[in-house]
Every structure is written in structure tokens, then in C-alpha cells.
Amino acid sequence: MENNQKQPFMEFPSVESRVIAGILFFAGTLIILGWAAINETSRMEEFTERFDGRSVETGAILFENNCATCHGPDGYGQADRAPALNNPFLFGYDFFEEHDRQIAILQGEIEVVDPEEEPEKVAELEAELALVEAQRQEVYETLRYDYATQWAALDAQLTALDTRILEETGMPPTLVSSRVNELTTQIETLNTEAAPILERIAAAEAAEESSDPLDIQRRDEIQTEVAALEAELTPLSALATERQPVFDKTNRYRALNDAHTQVVSLRQQIAELQSQLAALAEGDTTRTDIEAQLDTLESELSAQEDSRDTALEAMVTAGDIVDFDPEANSRLTQLQWNGTLEDLIYTTLISGRPVSAAYWPQPMAAWSQDAGGPLRRDQIQNLTDYVLNWDREFTLEDVRRIQQLAVEPSASGEAAAEGVCPDAANDPDSCDIEDIVAQLEALTLDPNQGQADYGAGGFGCTSCHFSGSAQAPAPQGVFTRATEHAGNNPDLFPSARYYLVQSILLPGAFTAPGFEAMAQLMPRTFGRQLDIQTLGNIVAYLESQDQ
Amino acid sequence: MSVLPVPSILDDIKEKGIRKAVYESLDRTTERITAGMNLQDIREALRGDKPSRRPNPRLTPHADGFWLHMRPSYYHTSVTGLYPTFRLGWLSTFFFAFEIITGLFLMIFYTPSPDVAYSDMKNLLGNVPMGQLMRDLHRLGAEGMVLVVALHMLRTFITGSYKKPRQFTWFTGVILLLVTLFLSFSGYLLPWDQLAFWAVTIGTSMAEAAPPEVVGTNVNLLLRGAPDIGAGGLLRFYLLHVFALPLITSIFIGVHYYKVVLHGHSLPPREEEVGKDTAKRVPMDRRTYYIPDVMSNELAMIGLWGFILVLMCVWFYHAPLENHADPQVTPLHTTAPWYFLWLQGMLKLGDKVIMGVVLPTVIFGFLFVLPYLDLTPSRRYAHRRIALSAGMFTVLALVVLTYMGTPFYGVSTEASAEVTQELIPMEGVGEVRAIPYDELKANLTVTDTADTIQATDVEAWKVSQTPLDFDATIIARDPGVIVVTEDNIEDLEELYAEDYPALWHAIEEFHHLLYDEYSENLPNAIGYISISQKQENLIRFYLLITWDVPEVDEESGEVKMDGDEPRLLLDVDGNPIRSVSGKQVYIHQEAEWHAH
Question: Which of A422, A455, B179, B500 is the most exposed place for a label (fewest CB within 10 A)?
Fold first, then answer.
């Protein structure tokens, strides 16, 4: 067998070469690892950016499939259906950030300068301040009142419509409407004439006698005439009906546009006169003249401003536009939300906004599977990322595309009148708990109705208050705990019921131990939303929870 | 007298001088740690000298130490080369250890719950230094281990090493092969992405097919913890992956290795007489001692493979991570992991029970008992023509079946869906996502070809009965539509090829798919591409295809042809029916699909 044996093929024939190779490989590994470690920070950052970018991509598709129906394909909202998300207020975008900063700086400078010592400097600074303030005013007015582009487009639409009407009828639109009126009157006259004739014919028929042949002849004549008139009227009145809303709308826009243009030009004239006035020496004879002119212009300005506001209001009422106030509070401020915007969007998507049933035809549903919706948590995150990705420098064009603004919580009308203490959110002292507890004594309370309201009454209690919830105490055993609190602090809570009522209406007054970090989550709006009977029923339900 | 109240090294130093005392102390410590070799012995071993004292100190670590007691003190020189073992058995063990080390690191950052598993992946990859590297190493090591274990079995078969007296070694080896497959497969699910979820759904659905029904249903329930994979299934797979299967592997590696040492490595077949096993009778001149030769070799190999794996994972290989698992959406062309593709291929050939359960059971059963069936004594290649031919045939069959398991074979999807899937796959990159954002941005309004859109197509979109996610106002909104027809490819090349290579590549591929690959299924097709800005840093890419519906043979699923032309389906008026299909994708500036 010996001659069959060969020396084995070894990768590294001697011990030394194997040791050296091993050391080299090991060192090589360390060098590569070192290189990877140096680049690791930037790699991780890049990864996170890519991951978040892809999350937005997924969110875009989810938005299209789930949200666009109500919030619009580009997130500008839909009138009377759902508010815009692609909206400066959601992001707390401040159109006046730079102006306000400059104004603050100038005001600070003016304060520092002593007006007795350096009157010129003060005058200079004040002039500058006035300039910045005027610029700020201009931005504000543009955002609020400038619908020139929209008006021009509407005007063009109207003109095109009028041209079409002229082509089709050979008449200008004004003639069309007067012709429509004329024809309608003629038809009415004929019908009035026909009425007694028809009556006579009907009476004759009823008596089974033959009618007067003159009557029949006249009736037939009238019918032919009316038919001819109606044949002319129908297309004309269709055109008139088509034109009317466009015409009205254009007029509303025109009124606003004219008033706004007037305001702008008056402001300019006033500024010019004022600078003339400033250039004139004290005691110059032309001063009174200019001052008189200024007075006229200013009264005219305020009249134009009023008519501009009226025109704007008319447009808002007609549903042409949303009432866009560039100085309105950000959504987070409106809601008195303490968390980040991301938290707001994320949690709203998870549990919906049951309260919005009060002002939208359909409330914002709970979208997360945890709350009975169709989406998983990661998809909720994708959607949140997509909505947040609308944050940018908003322009006039963006603003004009908004179809619907969010409703301010305090603005929800009817509920306020019935609430037990409507102003509890802003003024806790307005809410007299003892008085409410006393009122409850006089009522018959229904714990079953209370349980129904607690769960599905649109107040959203069970979104947070459920067994095992980390956000809020569970309803189970709440009465036992309330009794304990009342027993321990009789000064604070005269009775367990007092404790419950106060917890619902004034959540800020006392926070259940263990939930301090969540104290801000409980809405302060139940004083407005709950009438005394509903409140009582819910309290009765909670009082039955004494395990 | 001691220097200190108790005896200490200081006495030695006082007596012998500091140099000698310290050296002797070190020497003794080394001898204790190595269980028998002092500094001089180690030096000699590393220099390749013969041991200078008797008894041979290089044997004592095997006799007295724990770690080496399970290694032979010497090997037959004929088995220490690359042939006949190719180091595959050793490499399997190496990978197992490697997987345990990297796996422990990954375990720290992982929670086996569907709610957080995927975000744990994001955290691991984007927030844990070297986290991505560890995941890549673990994944690459897993693929490598499956490959190496399978090759190890193939080698054992080819050299006939399963024959007497090593039958049981082979038996435990088949167990280890199975456990390795399941180890890798169970780890597949843990990232909880689409790839994981659907590959494992397909894999476990085979268990459901096991007859009789009561067995299949219950095995499925045991595996998944519920009728479908969910939180329970993930936890079970996790526990299998990190506890049960590694435990079984460790036990059987022990048994397997014990048997290997007991019988010795089988020699190359030609070095033995037929029917003899001389592995344990090693002549003095054919002995290669573990210390230093085999040991240094193994250490160098650890260095080599560690280096290769790290090198690969830093620059060339990244473990895939797809979208979050979604039980509602099955990605088109989902496959099992590559080492189970042969099984998927078999499933396409016949009944789910026979092909998916019975046949694999028979195959593995046969593997288990192979050494007890094949009693021919000779290990010589020339004497084993039938066995080796059967082996080669099996390997070939596996390769063919693996191909058949891929979506390239026997999967019929609607042609239009196939085209959009090719360009915008549900998972992964594809030609469209590979277009850099800047190229898309530059092409938002480059062409104004709205007029060239066929009026019939616009009508088709408007009246289309299929629930399209297409919005008929798209043309009004996005005037910059790129129209791809059979004849305008040169015009498009002129417009795009030079300045927008990636976009041009996608257009070219679109053209190729419509007019070459699927021209029979999509007669008179026209393609539309619309690129529009959705958000400041987000672009929408919309792909639309319109075509005349061809007549399809119901049995074969193939388009009926009139000569070269596909026969068209006609409506009651005798006009061809126009159909439309579209798909969109959003591309974010930071997503950078093209770079990764």
C-alpha cells in the first residue's frame, strides 16, 4: 500500500507559515473591523434616513387607500367633511417669524435709547419699526384677502361661458335672462287665460255635454303657443341657470378683490402723503391741506376695509373659501396638547377622534387594530411619517388650496349650551362641583345608560380607561378607590361622588397616583360636552364599579 | 527564612535573582494552563522541532486537559490534507460556534413579538454600533453552514465513509443535517418582514398537509401556535431557534464527534485494502500530531474564515430586510429559502401530500438507513459505479428541482402584472426604484406629450370595469406623460439615454417587456409613465399599460395565435376589448434605493 500514499496537500506546509498566515488574517480582520467601526456612525445615520424615507413612501400609498377619500388626495381636506392636514396650522408654521423677530429687536433697541439725548436715533428706529410693521401687515393681508388669481380664473371662466352663450343664442347673457323672464311671463299669462277655459271644458265633460267649440279652439291655440314658447325657454333657462352660480361667485370674488385693491392703493396714497407731510416744515401752510386729504383717505380706507371684511364673510358663508386667519393658533395650541405633533398624529390615528362626530358628518375613526381599526402599528407610523412630511415653507398658493380648516374645540356650537360647566377648560373656578353634586341628587340616574355612554357615547372614555391600560386608571374598582380618596382627604373630597364628578370635569385638579405622567392626556372639555343627566348616568355607572 | 511571614515569590527572587525567578514562575503557570506544556515545549512546537523531553509533553494536554481530551492526539497523515475531508466537518463546527457567538449578540437586541420584532430590526440596524455587521455575519454564516453541512454529507457519500464501521456516525450526521436546515429555517421568521413571514408560511403549510388530516392540522397548530402565523408562532420559532434546536445540535455534534474520534477519520479509499478499516492503526511515520500541526492549521483556518466572512459582510453582503410582515398581502413570487426550493419545485409537480410530505419523508428516511442498506464492502470509486451514479443523479435532480422551485418555472401570473412586478416589484428594488431621485426630479415636466395619448385609451380608463387604482384625471394633473409605443424607442433613446441613464434603463426594460417578452399576451400594447411631485421630497411614479385582450386557451393558458398574430377577444360589436392595468410607486429623496 505504501506506493499509493501521497504526501497530503496542506494549505500552508510548515508550522511557521501557518502561524504567520493566521496572524495576518487575524490582523486583517481587525483592520476591516476598525474601518467599519470608524464609518459606523454615518452608516447608522444613513440607514435611519433611508428607513424613514421608505416609511414615507409606504405611508403615501396607505394615505391614498385609507385617508384620501375624506382628507383629499393631497391632504387639503374637503369642505364640511374633513380638515386639511397639508396645512400650515398643523405644523405651527409662522408666516411672520422673521417680521416678529425684527420688530422685537427694534423695540428692544428703542427702549435702550434715551429719547432726550438721541431724538434722531429714536425717530430713525421708529420709522424702521413702522416699515417692518407695514410689511408684516402686507403679508398678513395678502394671505387673508388676496384672491386675485382665483378671481381672474373665475372671470375668465365667466367670459368663456358668456362667449358660448352668445354663440349659441346670438344674445348677450343679460338679454338671455331678460328674455327668460319675458318668456316666463308670457307663458304665465297664457296659462292664466287658459285656466277658466279648461275649467269650462272639464265641467262640460263631467256633465257629459259637448264643450263650446270656440273654447276648444282657443285651448288648442294656447297649448300650441305655450309649447312654442317653452321650446325657446328651455335651452335659454338652462344656460341662465348654468351661468347664475358662476356669475354670483365671480361677483363675490370681484367685491373682495376690488375692496382689497382699493385698500392697498389707499394705503399707498396715505403713506405718500404722510412722507410729504413729514418733509414739510412745522407751520407750513400746505400742511392743513394735506392733513385734510389724509383724513378723507383714512375714512375711505376704513370704509373699504369694512366692505372687504363683508365681502370675505359673504364668500365664507357661500362656502367659496375657508376663513384663513394667518395669525390663528397652531393646532397643538388649539388642542392644548402637551406632546409633540408626531404624538398627536400617531395617537389620533390609533384611537380616532370620537368627539369629531359633533361637527363632521362622520367622526374620525380609530384606525389602529388595537382600537378595532384596520391598520397595524407600523402602518400607523408610516402614515404619521407621511403626514409629517408635509411640513415645509408654506406659500400663498398652498394656503389657497386648503378646502377645510380644522374646527377649534371651543367652537363646537350646540353642545356648549347644555354642558354642565361649559367654560371649565379655560376657567376651572366656573365649575362648582358641590353644586353639580347637589343637582345630581335630584335626578334619577341610570347606570346602564351611563355604561353605554361611557363605552360608545362618543366621549372616548374607553380609549384610555380600560382594564390594564397604561395611560389611565381602569374603571374597574374606581368607586372603591374614590371612597378611599374621600376617606383619606375629606377636606379635598367631601364625598366619593364629588371625587368622581371632579375627576371628569376638572381632570387637572387631582391626578390618580401612578398616572402623574399622563395627567395631561385627559381632555378638559367634558364640562362642555356632558349635560347634567349624561354626567349623572356616567357617575352612577362608575359608582357601580366597587369590586 | 521567608522574606514575608508567609512563603512567596520574593523568597525565590532572593535566592535565584529576579530574572530566573520570574521566568520559572511563568513557566510553571504556562504548564498549568496548557495542562502539560511549558514555555520551552511551546517554543519547540511552534518552531516545528521534535519534542526535547520524554514523555512527550505534547500528549499531556490531551490526557490531562479538558479541551483537548476530545481531540485525538495524532491523525493519520493521509487525512490531514485538503483531500479527502475538504475540512467540511470541521467547518460545520466552526460555523455552529460562529452562529452561537453572533446569535448571542443579536439576542440582546431582539424581542420575539410581532409588535416590536420589526422595529427591533430598525433599531439594530440604525442604532446599534456594528449591529448590521453582526446580523449580516449571522445570516451569511447560516447560509454557509447549510451549504457546508450539505457538502459534508455529499463528500462522505462520495468517499464511501458511511460504510462499516461508521454507519451510526452517518446516521447522526443526517440528524445534524436536518437540524441545521431547521435551525436556519426557524431563524428566517424572526425579523418579521414579508420575506420571513411568507417563506415560513409556505414552509409550514407543508406540515399542514401531512396525512391524516388530524395529524396535519395539529402539527400545524403546534408549530404556528394558531391556524396562522402570529405572536404564538413567532415565539415558538424563536424558542426553537435559540434553545431547542441548538441544544439538539450540541448533543448530536457530541455523539457525531465521539464516533469520529472512536473510529478515526476514514482514509482515502485507495490507501486501504477493500473491506479493511485501518484508520486506527497509524504507523509511526504516518502520524501527524495535533500539537502543533493540526492545531496551528485549525487556528489559521479560523483566521482565514473569520477574515472572509467579515470581509464579505463589510463590503459585499447585507442580510435582506423587506417590508413589515403583512398577513393580508402576499408578495408576488414568494419563495421558500433557497435550500428548500427543491421542495417547492416538487410541489409544483404533483399532489401536496405526496410531493410535500410523503416523498421528503421517504427521501430522508432513505438517507438515514443508507449505510444499513448498502452493505457492499468496497469504498473504491471504481467499485461503486451504481452508487456514485445514483448520487450524481440525485444532485442533478436537486439542481433541476431547485430551478423549478423558483418563480421562473410554472407560475402563471397575468402578463401585465408580470410587467409591473418586473419594474416595480412588491419587495426589493427593481428598475424603477433604482432611478435616482434627481433623475426623476429633472423629468417631472420634460416631455409634454399629453396630446399623444390615444383617445381610445383615455376612454378605456374611464369606462374600465376593473377596480383600478387609476384616476382618470391623471392626464389633467400630470401633463408630463412618457408614452412608450413599439416604434418610438429611438425617439425616447434620444431624449433620455444620455442624461438620464437609469430612467432610460427602466424605459428600455419596459419596452422590452411589452414588445418582446410579453408581446403575445399584450397585443397592441401601449405603455405610459407619469412622474409627478407628491410632496416636496416625494415623487410618484405611475406605470400604465393598455392592450387589446387576446383570446386565451383555457386548458394550456396560452394565447391562441393566428399565424404570428395573437387572436383578439372581440366584443358584441366585433371590436377588440381594450384593457388597462397600472401600478404606482412613491420615491422619497432620502430612500436611495439605487445605492443599496
Answer: A455
